[in-house]
């Protein structure tokens, strides 16, 4: 009986404690969303009231910095070549040009000057070289065209720079060997065509002489003379094609030359001002938050 009474007393004490806890929970007022939003706006307004001038001043200083950066940055002009490879594939030539870009980044101007056969002073006005394939393909024999874009500080260097680029593409060791082999083949074909044309010309002269001497086989001889004249015309056309191919033998064809832009591509005033404004607002926010924390700390200490 004693144990039962103790057990009942413990249960009553537990229920009484839970009841007191629930009353305390009910007394706690849960803030509403409207109160949180209002407090947030009030804090934001108070923050900008104290530090708004600071933010505006730092933002204006950032824009002024952007303007001075625009004023002091040299003008850069962009121009593009359109190239089509003939011996190496487009990815191979692009990889070669990327090596030139790496040399330019390292300011290895003498090495590039030897490759391009231009003055070092010309290369110092070249700031960047970028390439882009017009049609990407995984075919190893991909001879599609690609673009080569440069940034220069002076448009006067574009013409010698174009000559230097095409010279460098034509005069790497591997390309020189392939070009020499191709030129020799074309010259051999031209000489063979010349010899065949000479032989047919002699044969045509002999047939025409026989035509005047004998009138019995004149019709047949006229037919033979016509056939020979057609063969000679066909060989001369092929010979002209081979000569044209020899004249234009190159590792790359220039489909579009560099053009001289009238206005600089970089720097851009609006872009510099916006970057300065963004930087100023970010810096001003950091300063304002630091001052706000210092102010709160001082108030709590007092």
Can you characterise this structure?
The chain is of the alpha+beta class. It has 4 domains: 1-30; 32-73 and 267-302, no CATH class; 77-171, no CATH class; 175-252. It is built from 9 helices and 4 strands, in the order H-H-E-H-H-H-E-E-H-H-H-E-H. A 4-stranded antiparallel sheet has the order 2-3-1-4, with helices on one face. Helix 2 packs across helix 9. The longest helix has 41 residues, at 173-213. It is rod-shaped. The chain starts with a helix and ends with a helix. The relative contact order is 0.15.
Count of DSSP strands: 4
Shape, per Cα inertia axes: rod-shaped
Low-confidence stretches: 1-7, 25-30
**Between the first and last Cα atoms, what is the distance in angstroms?**
62 Å
Secondary-structure element series: HHEHHHEEHHHEH
Number of helices: 9
Which structural class is indicated by helix and strand composition?
A: alpha+beta
Residues in helices, as a percent range: 55-70%
Strand content: 5-15%
Quaternary state reads: single chain
Average predicted local confidence, pLDDT: 79
